[in-house]
Amino acid sequence: MKYLRYLLIFVPLAFLVEFVEAIHSPLLVFICACAGLVPLAGLLGEATEELAIHTGSKIGGLLNATLGNAAELIITIVALSAGKIDLVKASLTGSILGNLLLILGFSLLLGGLKNGIQRFDRGLTGMSGTMMLLAVIGLLIPTMLELVREAQLGRIDVFNTAVRDPALDAISLGVAAVLILLYILSLIFTFQTPARESHTGVEDHSAEEETHKAKWSVLFSTGVLAGCTVAIVFLSELLVGAVEPVVASLGVSELFLGIIIIPIVGNVAEHIVGVQVAYKNKMDLSLSISLGSSLQIALFVAPLLVFISLLFGPEMTLFFSLMEVAALGLAVLIASFISADGESNWLEGAQLLAVYVIVALGFYYIQPGGVGN
Length: 373
Known about the structure:
Low-confidence stretches: 196-211, 369-373
Strand content: under 5%
Largest sheet: 2 strands, antiparallel
Helix content: over 70%
Number of helices: 14
Mean pLDDT: 83
Distance between the termini: 37 Å
Number of domains: 1
Number of strands: 2
Radius of gyration: 20 Å
Strand order of the largest sheet: 1-2
CATH topology: A middle domain of Talin 1
CATH class: Mainly Alpha
């Protein structure tokens, strides 16, 4: 993972391109900000892991459960403060799709090509599949409620999710509270059953911790965590500010940027780790990374953002577009089907990647205004 640190050069470059008028370009700002966020997200995760080793398995597990997707959370909070609610929703959808289809697909593909048939704990995938289906239900109910209400009023727009409806606001807050409660219960269950593989939002790195001792002190780890957080906040400001000019210049939709580009930027370091451990035939750990991150986004980050949005004005609701909800539901189903037997091979990885490409093509050509590229 150390080679990602070379990308840190893009952090000052992003500010240089933004504030030096002679070379200012929104597209270059966007590219440099994306490239700079990749190593910062990796360092943020590494600092969290180092602190987890110092604090022990219980508190360390809690740190992973709350800070595992810190970079994604920071980016989305900055976008919320800028009023980019649709971009935030798309980013959340894209993060889950990326973990279930892209990272899991590459893990099964490369792991299968290297090791043949790979086996893993069926209980891991069974519990995770159930939790993900519950999360999708949590998104589907507010979406269907609002579509029914719009049908009653004689107007339906499946892409306009920025509606102001007191009933939608209330049910979104209620569902968000239930999902967070479910996430907390999953943590309690994980901590009470240490012998089981962690699969409810806490990434299990016990196998690595057996041979890995802390390289950083608590003070240094905390400093890196704080420094990366501040840097991610400022780079996120540049990234979000460049979104509209980039959309206009490239001719892609904001929805596509949120679904495909931004989630990869925030999660690429974690994705690489998941693929690496699958290549080493550690499928339980690989699945724990991909499925655990998906659960954390669906049950913790997304509901938390609903409450955080109250600080910035218009409330973010759990009303997603039908395309997003359908893609999430289908991704959960195919990932559950493929992993249900406790075995995997390279062809199943190729199938997941094929679904991801199909979904990406769909979001590329669908424009919120109803006109394709």
